[in-house]
């Protein structure tokens, strides 16, 4: 699978004194949703950082649509929904302004929004059911609404690969269902999605492929093959049984 949208080979990465990922190799399938499953501290966020070119001590290779991560970001091939959004509640940035930030890679230096930018923002707000909240300050939103705003920013960006780090953490059931709906619509449109979670519940409905991570890749493949009691015990420990 030479032209897989994401190819990671023998990646070892981490932080001073911490090897968070060891000899990780994986391929994402085009136009599919892959769930990255692993316990707390298993290296999920570090893998996202590596895909974004932000992690130190990198050994091995990361290719995104055949390019290195910096080139892929410059060419607007990747959108990212971070686990923790940096929102300063004292800085009144509106939902609409956050979503418009997804369009910055499409704009020139002066960041003047054109009709296609406004249309993409409208569509992303509608898909995440935030149109009525567009003028609301992001700091005033609930956890689920705020997460939807950052999903909307990524949607507006329109990149062919979307990375979402734990988008369901601290999110209400309604927002979770809506985000899943959005991801399934993205898949229909051919976007490749990688989503990390430590919630096992619902993975079968969410994802086409699962990568089980515990510093190394323990297993990868369709949910039915990967989510066996034995593999899950290796990834999450005996407590799960
Ligand atoms: N900035 C950092 N500096 C030092 N060590 C870090 C840093 N970030 C993560 N680590 C360590 O790297 C390892 C992997 O962490 P990582 O955040 O990638 O895991 P995770 O699977 O995303 O966890 P969680 O589900 O809790 O978010 C852990 O041992 C963690 O303590």
Distinct ligands, ions and cofactors found in the model: adenosine-5'-triphosphate
How many DSSP helices? Answer: 9
Helix- and strand-based class? alpha/beta
Low-confidence stretches: none
Largest sheet: 6 strands, mixed
The strand order across the widest sheet is: 5-6-7-3-8-9
CATH top level of the domain at 1-77 and 187-241? Alpha Beta
Overall pLDDT metric: 91
Overall geometric form: globular
Q: Considering DSSP H and I runs of 4 or more, what fraction of the residues is helical? A: 25-40%
Oligomer: single chain
Q: Strand-and-helix sequence, N→C?
A: EEEHEHEHHHEHEHEEHH
Question: Tally of extended strands?
Answer: 9
Please tell me the CATH architecture of the domain at 1-77 and 187-241 by its name: 3-Layer(aba) Sandwich
Under CATH, the topology of the domain at 1-77 and 187-241 can be stated as Rossmann fold
Intertermini distance: 35 Å
Rg (C-alpha, Å): 18 Å
**Residues in β-strands, percent:** 15-25%
Question: What is the CATH superfamily classification of the domain at 1-77 and 187-241?
Answer: P-loop containing nucleotide triphosphate hydrolases
Question: What does this entry look like structurally?
Answer:
- Strands 5-6-7-3-8-9 form a six-stranded mixed β-sheet, with helices on both faces.
- The chain has a domain at 1-77 and 187-241: P-loop containing nucleotide triphosphate hydrolases (Rossmann fold).
- The protein has helices spanning 44-51, 69-74, 95-101, 115-127, 143-157, 173-188, 203-206, 223-226, 229-236; strands at residues 6-15, 18-28, 33-37, 59-64, 78-81, 161-165, 192-197, 209-214, 216-221.
- It contains nine helices and nine strands.
- The protein has 241 residues and is of the alpha/beta class.
- 34% of the residues lie in helices and 24% in strands.
- The radius of gyration is 18 Å and the shape is globular.
- α3 (95-101) packs parallel to α5 (143-157), α4 packs antiparallel against α5 and α5 (143-157) packs parallel to α6.
- β1 and β2 form a beta hairpin.
- The longest helix has 16 residues, at 173-188.
- The two termini are 35 Å apart.
- Residues 6-240 form the ABC transporter domain.
- Belongs to the ABC transporter superfamily.
- Keywords: ATP-binding, Nucleotide-binding, Transport.
- Pfam families: ABC_tran (PF00005).
- One of its GO terms (molecular function) is ATP binding.
């Amino acid at each position: 699978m030479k032209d897989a949208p994401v190819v990671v080979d023998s990646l070892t990465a981490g932080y001073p004194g911490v090897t968070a990922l060891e000899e990780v190799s994986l391929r994402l399938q085009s136009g599919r949703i892959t769930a990255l499953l692993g316990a707390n501290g298993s290296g999920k966020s570090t893998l996202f950082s590596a895909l974004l070119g932000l992690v130190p001590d990198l050994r091995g290779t990361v290719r995104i649509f055949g390019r290195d991560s910096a080139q892929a970001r410059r060419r607007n091939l990747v959108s990212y929904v971070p686990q923790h959004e940096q929102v300063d509640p004292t800085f009144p940035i509106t939902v609409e302004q956050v979503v418009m930030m997804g369009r910055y890679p499409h704009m020139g230096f002066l960041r003047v929004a054109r009709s296609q930018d406004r249309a993409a923002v409208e569509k992303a707000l509608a898909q995440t059911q935030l149109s009525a909240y567009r003028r609301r300050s992001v700091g005033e939103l609930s956890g689920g609404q705020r997460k939807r705003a950052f999903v909307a920013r990524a949607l507006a960006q329109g990149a062919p690969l979307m990375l979402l780090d734990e988008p369901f953490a601290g999110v209400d059931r309604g927002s979770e269902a809506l985000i899943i709906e959005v991801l399934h619509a993205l898949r229909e449109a051919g976007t490749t999605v990688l989503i990390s979670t430590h919630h096992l519940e619902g993975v079968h409905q969410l994802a086409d492929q699962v990568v089980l991570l515990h510093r190394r890749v323990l297993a990868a493949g369709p949910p039915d093959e990967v989510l066996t009691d034995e593999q899950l015990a290796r990834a999450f420990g005996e407590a799960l049984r």
